[in-house]
Structures are given as C-alpha cells and as structure tokens.
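Hi X.,

You mentioned you wanted examples for the new student's onboarding notes, showing what a folding record looks like when two proteins sit in one file. Here is a clean example. The first protein comes first, with its sequence line followed by its structure tokens.
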Amino acid sequence: MTDERMPRPASAPQSPISSSRGPIVEPASEDLAPAPTDSALPGVHRGGFQRELTQPLPVAPPLAVHPDPDDEISPDVRWIPQQPALPRSAGWSLLFGVLGFVLACFVGWGFPVGIIGTVLAVLALRRPWERRETALWGLGLSVASLIYSAGWLWWAASQGALFG
C-alpha cells in the first residue's frame, strides 16, 4: 500500500540500506545566537533584560591580605577595626532569676538575688542586640522570686514577735 499522491524526493535513497555517507545536518536558522567562544566570570552580565533592582552586581577584585609596600594599589588598603564586645545581661538575668527562684522556694532571703535578676532583665530588654526571650524568662523568674521571698518574709514576720 503506497500512497501514489505523494511524490518521492529525488535525493532519497531507493534501498532501505543507508548510504555510506554520514547523516545530513541542516544549517542553523538565523534566529539562533552562536555559542560563546569564551566563558564569562560568575556575576558578569551576559546580555538580555536588565532590571534596576535585580541586575547583577559587578565582580570586585579581591583585596590583598598582606599589602605589598611597593605595590601602587595596596598602600591604600585599610582594615576595619574589630567592634568592641557589647555588654550581655540577658543570660545573667536568667541565671539570677533561676537562682533567686530556687532560693526563694526554700528560704526568704533570695530577695537580693531577685532584685539583681530584675535589674539585669530590664537592662537586657532595653538593648536591641540582646535576646528578648532570654530576658523575658529572666524577668519572669526574678519577679516570681521576689514575690516568693516577700511571702516568706511576711510569713516569718507574722510568726515571730518582731512587729508587736
């Protein structure tokens, strides 16, 4: 069953066995860009759309670790001084809050430890670099230790003949 309406191309081989020539490759169309011959560095713009906020940043040359005094560029290299250590008090307030609460559960003299923990927690909450969760736990435990200590001291005062 052959379709006689379709003419056969003249260059098509007549036998089912292919010829010894290689496969026929068509040339590329004009709408394809040729492949680049060199590879660009990462971050270099490769063409296409440029958007103001999302365009690639230029690649900066690396700075010398140990500047050479004879080099023309490296004498201008200045290192940023290390930032001073910021005071930390959130962890200390939690420690004093736990110690004050444990001490206030057994005796009434955990009052000064609770005051120290409360002051440190308030200082930590005012500093933006401190951990808020730790400072809030320290404040809560310190206030609880103050309440328990005040309860112990009130109970001790009412049991004794200290206030008449």
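Then the second protein repeats the pattern, sequence line and then tokens:
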Amino acid sequence: MSLDAEKKIAVHCRNIIKTYGTGASEVFALRGADLDVYEGELLMLVGPSGCGKTTFISIFTALLSADGGECDILGKDLNTLSSDQKVHLRAKSIGFVFQAFNLLPALTAQENVAVPLLIQGVGRKVAMQEAKLVLDSVGLGARSSALPAELSGGMQQRVAIARALVHHPKLIVCDEPTSSLDHESGHVIMKLLRDIVDNSNTTLIVVTHDDRIYEFADRMAHMDDGKIIKIETMKNQQGIIA
C-alpha cells in the first residue's frame, strides 16, 4: 500500500506563485509549486541555491503570503487566516530549526528552550521545567545551565531542536540543520530527528544540500526554478509514492 493511502496530509500546496519586485524587475521565486507532505513523515526538500526552497517553506509556515495558489497546513487554509491567526498557528503547531541555530547568547540552554513557552504566556517555572525535560530527551540535560558559547556546534543544534520541540508542534521545519556540522555530529542530529518522527507522528520537513543525510528521508522533493520537479521515495522505505 502506498504512503498516500495510509497517511493524512499535513501540508497541501497547489500552484503556489510568489514574485518579488514589480515591472521589469519582477522575479518569480515560485512558479506554480505543488507539494503534499504527509503526517508522520520526514521529507527532504532539495535543489540548487536560488530555486525557491526558502521562499516555499516560508509560505507553508505562514511567514510569507503567496501571490497565487492554495496552501492548507494542518487542516488550515492559509488564504483564509488573518495575520493574528497565522501567528497563533506558528506558535502552537509549528517548530523551526534554523541553520544558524539562532540561540540567544546571554541565555542558558534551558532558558533558550523555554522561550517559545514564555512567549505563549506559560509561567516561567512551568516553562523551565518543560525545557529541562526536552533537553533531557535530546541528551543535554546535564548541560542545561550552559551558555551557547560553552557548547559545541552539535550541542547547540540539539538545543535548537529542543526549542523547536518544547511546545509539541505537529510540524517541524529545519533549514540546513547539518550544514555546519561534521559528518558524525550531523548523523547524530538526523538520528535524533528521525526518532522524533517515528515516535511522535510529527511531520518533519528538512531543507538541505547535504547528501550525507539523504538516507534518513522517507521521501525527497526535488525543486528547481520555482517548482517541484520530482518526488522520490527513498530505498530504505516501503511503498511507491511517485
């Protein structure tokens, strides 16, 4: 049985168009991009620099608005949501892991992880307790009081992942999570992310140029010139998607 027959769709985008500039300076970042991402899968979005990957993920995480097309995220039609509703969707249901980690240097690992909960109005004591539990789950409980500068790159990335997990999102988007890590550290991070997907039915989208980690994907969506040009199922997975 194919994956699309077994799973619900978490991300559904059709004919997404996005342009920057106007008139003679108008540039098409997305030229009718289509993509379905299923609940509980790890999908990698790959393609050359400038092909529209960052714009695409910014649209289906409600950070940017499309100029055309439709996009449903976790059952929500983005075209019908107000700005406040999009903020609420991101805060409650979407986690982000950034390429540059984006940790606050003056805060400890535990305080960094607690930030999303504090923004939502969770009390500091509860937020810090939750942050400690998530740090424990990524193997950094013993370093919860360390500042980012006192942690290795791989450890900082695990703190960033813990921060993305702390509010129990249904969708996590990672932008080049292993690009600044050595091979061993990158595989530790991807094994952690793979385990999260397998154990919690979380949907994970990884934007990457790192062919060392392709083996961790369920499917790979290849992008070029503002469109998805091919979707392939990885050899270690069962079923045929495209």
